[in-house]
Amino acid sequence: MTTILKTSNLSIGYTSKKATVVIAEQLNLNLVAGKLIALIGANGIGKSTLLRTITGIQHPLQGTVFLNDKNIATYKPLDLAQHLSLVLTEKLPPSNLSVFELVALGRQPYTNWIGTLTQTDIDKVQQALELTQIEHLAQKKHCEISDGQLQKVLIARALAQDTPLIILDEPTTHLDLLHKVSLFKLLKKLTQETNKCILFSTHDIDLAIQLSDEMIIMTPEMVVQDEPQHLISKGSFNTLFKDENITFDTEKGKFIIR
Question: pLDDT category, 197, cuts 50, 70, 90?
Answer without folding.
Answer: very high
